[in-house]
Amino acid sequence: RFGVSCVLLDIDGDWGKHSVKGDLPLPSRAQADEIIAALPLDPALIVESGGGLHVYLRFDRVYSSAAAQPVMDGLKFWYETQAKAMKIQPDARPTADLARVLRPAGSLNHKIAPSRSVTIEHQDPMCTWTLGELRDAFPAPVVTATPIPMRAEGDAERASDRFAVTVPVSK
Questions:
Q1: Please, how many CA atoms are within 13 Å of residue 80, restricted to the half-sphere of its CB?
Q2: d(C-alpha 132, C-alpha 130), whole Å
Q3: If 0-12 CB within 10 Å is exposed, 13-18 middle and 19+ buried, where does residue 14 land?
Q4: Residue 68 belongs to what H/E stretch?
Q5: Which of 43, 61, 128, 153 is deepest in the core (most CB within 10 A)?
């Protein structure tokens, strides 16, 4: 049986080489540290990936992916909100992606010449959080459905054309 033992932030920094696209700059090292300082819960592990930071918030035990996904979605939303306020470009995709594999400490980041070591900057193996604590700290964004008529006045109605769903996007 598989499960999730932590949630993470992947903060791509301007000191690395990344494929993130957008009009805003990537965060500087100082801005990345500011994001970490703003976390409502302490991380168990921070890894310098040779061009960014991987910040791990550890669960107190292994949870199912279904139980952990709302926390991952909430952390992604939190990170995007922080980045928007700081006017920097986040790559929040890895935050809510269970299949993402990150560089382990002790390896090398070969995207940059010369290659850079991936190192542990902070480690507190006793720092864990319950599912409830993480859910409270990073609530999943609320998605609402608003019915919108899909046909013009006088058009023949089909059952499948009655409504569309709109999802508000954070600005």
A1: 18
A2: 5
A3: middle
A4: helix 65-86
A5: 43
Q: What kind and span of H or E run contains 46?
A: strand 45-48
Which region holds residue 155: left if phi is over 0, alpha if psi is between -120 and 50, else beta?
beta
44-83 pLDDT, tens digit per residue, is 999 998 889 999 999 999 999 999 999 999 999 999 999 9
What are the C-alpha distances in Å from 150 to residues 11, 74, 144, 168, 169? Answer: 41, 31, 18, 18, 21
3-class secondary structure, 134: helix
| Amino acid sitting at position 124 | D
pTM: 0.77
Q: Pairing mode, if any, of strands 4-12 and 52-63?
A: antiparallel
